[in-house]
Amino acid sequence: MDILVTYFTPELVFKIFKAILLEVPIIFFNKSKQILSSIIEIFLVLLYPFEYKRTVVHILPKDNYTLLEKLSTFIVGIAEPFNEDFFENNGIVATNRH
User: pTM score, two decimals?
Assistant: First the structure.
């Protein structure tokens, strides 16, 4: 849980938790694959007693980034730092649904 406190404010944790419950697609970015996996697992554990039944990919390989357009609800980890141009550079059409 230390990772959660290190990387997220309480407001952001609540916002992510709410997005998961509303089945909003979520992408986590971090250079560390270990941190990405831990963050995703923590949010899945926080859902208890609920269970996330949608697509979860802890580390999405670069060759598969375009799959994000085809999935409607997911939690995905991208093992690179966040870049404003990520979606455009990888041929992904991103919309802000909320």
Answer: 0.82
